[in-house]
């Protein structure tokens, strides 16, 4: 499912116009993005949690030339699936 399919499903389920459903989905995604930018944890019970992990710098290798390169520190979003969702997907 992609974003537009999610919007269509929300519009159909709740009887909203496509434009209103799109606004709701965008508000949710923008709020989640803003929280992660502020380094906050997002937990949706029964679904999972989103956290931002910090990765330190390290020396890597250029796969083409094999020469060492310095990889800068970075932050990446990480999703951990919740127990209920894991069990639903697994068919339990």
UniProtKB/TrEMBL annotation:
Pfam families: Bac_DNA_binding (PF00216). InterPro entries: Hist_DNA-bd (IPR000119), IHF-like_DNA-bd_dom_sf (IPR010992). SMART domains: BHL (SM00411). One of its GO terms (cellular component) is cytosol. Keywords: DNA-binding. It comes from the Bacteria. One of its GO terms (molecular function) is structural constituent of chromatin. PANTHER family: DNA-BINDING PROTEIN HU (PTHR33175), INTEGRATION HOST FACTOR SUBUNIT BETA (PTHR33175:SF5). Belongs to the bacterial histone-like protein family. This is Integration host factor, beta subunit. It comes from Geobacter sulfurreducens (strain ATCC 51573 / DSM 12127 / PCA).
